[in-house]
């Protein structure tokens, strides 16, 4: 493994993410994460624009991996969701689309959209069951 690959790998280890986000993972949460996985297309909201990018997303081991398509071997990016909360967008978020969910950790906010209610419920359930420090008051489904 090249030095850059090693550095990228180390920066996304569970211990590294927990340390920087000041959280911990119970043994039960860790066990659950080993069996929680999902993949499919999601639309990711571009910052400060009305555009959405269609990406193949794989969720496994507390992390979202983003690919251009399902045929790609290597992800474009990854997002460890440890410490994030999963919720519905608020009115102030100005999301005028159906099947949108919000992932947030402090000032880092991401919006994702699915193409159906069925896939929306799948993604929200898997992510909420795997995010640490989720606020159950934000989990109401409309």
From TrEMBL:
Signal peptide: none annotated. PROSITE patterns: PH_DOMAIN. InterPro entries: PH-like_dom_sf, PH_domain, RAC1-GEF. One of its GO terms (molecular function) is guanyl-nucleotide exchange factor activity. Residues 35-132 form the PH domain. Pfam families: PH (PF00169). This is PH domain-containing protein. It comes from Medioppia subpectinata.
